[in-house]
Specification:
It contains 8 helices and 8 strands. It is an alpha/beta fold. It has one domain: TIM Barrel (Alpha-Beta Barrel). Strands 1, 2, 3, 6, 7 and 8 form a 6-stranded parallel beta sheet that branches. A two-stranded parallel ribbon has the order 4-5. Helix 2 links the parallel strand 1 and strand 2. Helix 2 packs parallel to helix 8. It is globular and about 45 Å long. The N and C termini lie far apart (about 35 Å).
């Protein structure tokens, strides 16, 4: 095998291990509760759905999302950027007061798989310190931006007392496609997971790492529609209902 082909395989292998949510090559992360066979998940949780929201808080759309969740009496998990939390501390407290779980999503949303050990430490510890200062409680969960990780990222998160969290149901809602398309894509993924006896760890976005007030109207409306469609026969949970089990 030629050098170029070998390098291509190595690069491809690293990309898979670093970016694919289901990869465990760099270490385990929480996706859904595990049974005896972690490839299948714990079927006793198959009807459970965890709604998670990344890249906030967003002063323009997170309040709207909180109203939608309150209307449906659903609790969710918000993976927040430290820089956004610092600028919107009252909104962070509102999220927690409504019964939602807050997690660490780094300070500035870099690709941590390519970051130095010092940068990883700064991004995670600074964010946890800020969130804990605002909410007055430990931050127990961490989601890497883009899902990008390497062993040092997962080790740092755990040393800081956090469970790394990935997902198994996501669309490109950050591109603001029609809400019905977002809902249909997620429902298809949820149905497929349920058929396999697995719960769904769903990612939507209430913020944007490039724009503090990113337009997330489509995601907010889609969240409401998805809840209304899936609530009969499913139970919405927060990530702490599953942690720290890995699946």
């Amino acid at each position: 095998m030629g050098t170029a082909a070998t390098l291509g395989l190595v690069a491809g292998g690293f990309a898979y291990a670093a970016m694919w949510p289901g990869s465990r090559l760099f270490g385990a992360a929480l996706i859904v509760p595990s049974g005896n066979d972690s490839s299948q998940g714990d079927s006793s949780h198959a009807s459970e759905l965890a709604l998670t929201f990344d890249d906030g808080p967003n002063p323009a759309f997170t309040p709207r999302l909180l109203d939608v969740l309150a209307e449906h009496d659903v609790r969710a998990t918000f993976f927040m950027l430290g820089s956004r939390a610092e600028a919107n501390s009252a909104l962070v407290r509102r999220v927690v007061a409504a019964g939602h779980v807050v997690g660490n999503h780094s300070w500035s949303h870099p690709n941590l798989a390519l970051a130095s050990a010092a940068r990883i430490e700064e991004e995670l510890s600074r964010t946890s310190q800020m969130l804990e200062q605002i909410i007055g409680a430990p931050v127990r969960f961490f989601r890497p931006p883009f899902g990008a990780r390497r062993p040092a990222v997962l080790r740092t998160a755990r040393r800081l007392g956090m469970v790394p969290v990935l997902w198994n149901a996501m669309t490109t809602d950050w591109e603001s496609p029609p809400t019905d398309r977002i809902v249909a894509a997620l429902q298809q993924k949820i149905d497929r997971l349920n058929h396999r006896g697995r719960a769904a760890n769903i990612v939507l976005h209430d913020g944007g790492h490039l724009e503090p007030r990113a337009d997330r109207a489509a995601s907010v409306v889609a969240a409401g529609k998805l809840i209304a469609r899936m609530k009969p026969g499913h139970r919405f949970v927060t990530i702490d209902a599953w942690g720290p089990r890995m699946g």
